[in-house]
């Protein structure tokens, strides 16, 4: 059994008729979200992260440092859409990480990285 503090009990309500609702302010607004809405948002973020990982790995494998430069230039272009800006930033960070990992690896480790990257779902790399 989970024990809640008074403040936690005050902010979360559940009943047989009402769904579980987390009450509070989200980005300054007095918006409440149901548990299922929060799960949907988390799943969407995970999907976007996985897509960014695949994109970054493919850019580094196929283009090397030029792929990293392309990812960094995508941030400098400053897309108008907020989601595109976040995605470009995430891809650039992941590309920098993957490039460092790839650059520091020897030939055997690079082959292992390629094998791992090619096994990912949706990956365009074919060994």
Q: Brief description of this entry?
A:
The chain contains 5 helices and 3 strands.
Report on the architecture of this protein.
By secondary structure, this protein is mostly helical. Helix content is 65%, strand content 5%. It has 5 helices and 3 strands. The chain has a 3-stranded antiparallel β-sheet with strand order 1-2-3. Helix 3 runs antiparallel to helix 4. The radius of gyration is 21 Å and the shape is flat. The termini are far apart. 14% of the residues are buried. The N terminus is likely disordered.
Instruction: Extract low-pLDDT stretches.
Output: 1-21
**Helical content band:** 55-70%
Q: How many DSSP E strands? A: 3
- Overall morphology: flat
Q: Sheet with the most strands?
A: 3 strands, antiparallel
Q: Any idea what the radius of gyration is?
A: 21 Å
Global mean pLDDT: 75
SSE succession? HEEEHHHH
Instruction: Provide a count of the helices.
Output: 5
- Compute the separation of the termini in Å: 50 Å
Assess the beta-strand content as a share of residues.
under 5%
| Sheet/helix structural class | mainly alpha
Largest sheet strand order? 1-2-3
Question: Which features does this protein show?
Answer:
mainly alpha; 3 strands; about 130 residues; flat; about 65% helix
